[in-house]
Amino acid sequence: MTLYQELATNFERLIQKGSLKVGDKMPSIRTVSKEYGVSINTVIQAYLVLESRSCIVSRPQAGFFVCEKVDLRLPVPQASNPSNNPKEQADDGLIGKVFRNFVNKEITQLSLSVPDESFFPVARLNKCLHKASQTLSSGGTGYDDIQGNFLLRKNVAKWSFTWAGNLGIDDLVSTSGAMHAISLAFMALTKPGDRIAVESPVYFGILQLAKNMGLKVIELPTHPVTGVDPDDVKARIGEIDICLLVSNFNNPLGSCMPEENKKAMVKLLGKHGIPLIENDLYGDVYFGPNRPKPCKAFDEEGMVLWCGSVSKTLAPGYRVGWMAPGKYLKDILKLKLFHSVSGTTLTQEAIGHFLETGRYEKHLAQMRKKLYANSLQFIRAISDYFPQGTKVSRPLGGFVLWVELEKGKDTGKFFDQALSQGISIAPGRMFTLQNQFYHCMRLNYGLPWSDGLDLQLKRLGQMLKQ
């Protein structure tokens, strides 16, 4: 046995014994080289062997992590199969009940779709706020341009190079978060009775907004890995007036559409004159080597309204978002003037400063590293503690997992039992208007990992086994 094979075998034994668990970061190559008195090349060869045995996985700029053994993995849920002629479920107030305690620090908030505040660079943001109050002529008390803060739009446009966006400052409109952008798009492009196609499951706020605006929601089959298939849209193209997709790391599935599917989707919808609203606020939280392109990257006709924000990556409470509405820019500006005049000047300027310093990528790299490790820890805990027959998604970005239990479970009813033990979950049927996903739940892994969190997941699993 060669030296690197011996080293790989030693680490594999540590993993098998549980000394190194799924989600743990492996010691750096330099550390192993120093501690074991071997060359860096020997350590690299050993880690490559461990990768080939599916013991560890490498992540760019993050290092190596212990991962699930292929033969021990829980299965991924199947693609959803929503009805073409659905009977809408009655509103029983479940969403309100789930979010009644969302600021309660005594509860383990697995129900939220936002990272814990400890993941955000609060001190840096405070400095940017202070700087904004000094650089703005009104100290931040006055109205800004209707199209939005110039510094913010300038730096969002520059940041679009990460996905070949080539956006200009005047292509963008600032908003009070991504949902505000989606609301403006709905108002500009739809009327009561119009038919909107969305993923299934999808973020409940989108569904409730569409419902409240009198739109007919068409829920599309969605795969936990690849999202919506353009062929499924094509099959119902005559029924669709507008489409909304979360193409990168959908909430709650975590799916990411392959690039060829995004191209095909833009081409298909454009051919039929159907606008696409794209919610891309999770795109920067990717675990692979590169940021996945949004559908907007393939939009040549201005039919894609690209929406984003920093609510999931920097500052949820700042309510800073934006959109690139393409050919619908004038319509969006008119509506924004009527509904809000301008955004929050101070926070938009502060985010503009933060983006301009170049700290955003460094912050994102650290956040992605933590979130990826957390996702592995959560999946390992679910595998260890949850009932047999459980399935779980494998997102390559974002911060939520979609968990599917055996049919017969009702996570809406289970919510109260979990809450009584200080744990909040998001029941699956929140993410549909149809009678489906009763046996599913969404869990947020954007929390600081600890033995206490592991124990809460164990409790959750024990309750589910009862």
UniProtKB/TrEMBL annotation:
CDD domains: AAT_like, WHTH_GntR. Keywords: Aminotransferase, DNA-binding, Pyridoxal phosphate, Transcription, Transcription regulation, Transferase. SUPFAM superfamilies: PLP-dependent transferases (SSF53383), Winged helix' DNA-binding domain (SSF46785). Coiled coil: none annotated. It comes from the Bacteria. The keyword rRNA processing does not apply. Residues 1-69 form the HTH gntR-type domain. It holds the Pfam family Aminotran_1_2. GO terms for molecular function: transaminase activity. The keyword Transcription applies. In the C-terminal section; belongs to the class-I pyridoxal-phosphate-dependent aminotransferase family. This is PLP-dependent aminotransferase family protein. It comes from Cyclobacterium plantarum.
